[in-house]
Amino acid sequence: MIKECIEIDGDLIGAVTGRPAGFFVIFSIQELENYVDSLENRTRSDNDRRTALINSWNQNNNAQTTNKY
Fold first, then answer.
1. What average pLDDT score do residues 36-64 get?
2. Is residue 6 in a domain?
3. Exposed, middle or buried, 58 (CB in 10 Å: 0-12/13-18/19+)?
4. Are 53 and 38 in contact (CB under 8 A)?
């Protein structure tokens, strides 16, 4: 539902994953820029973790490696 609000309706909604987790409406350019920077950093971190998992699997499972990159 939130995804639809953002991608289809154009609503400016951010999400907080900490405690407490939840959603918030973005009201200022500063909030928007801070939030999109946070999304970019999370994406990089997730991708680094993905790469590490693939590399570890391939190093430890020579008979059955993955070519996901």
1. 94
2. yes
3. middle
4. no
Determine the pLDDT at residue 17: 86
pLDDT at 63: 87
Tell me the two tokens of residue 22. 């939840």
Three-state DSSP class for 69? coil
65: tokens are 């490696």
| Domains: count for the chain | 1
Give the residue numbers spanning the domain of 33: 2-51
68: in domain:
no
- Which residue reads 């953002």 in tokens? 6
3-state secondary structure of 24: strand
Eight-class DSSP state of 26? -
CA distance 17 to 23: 9
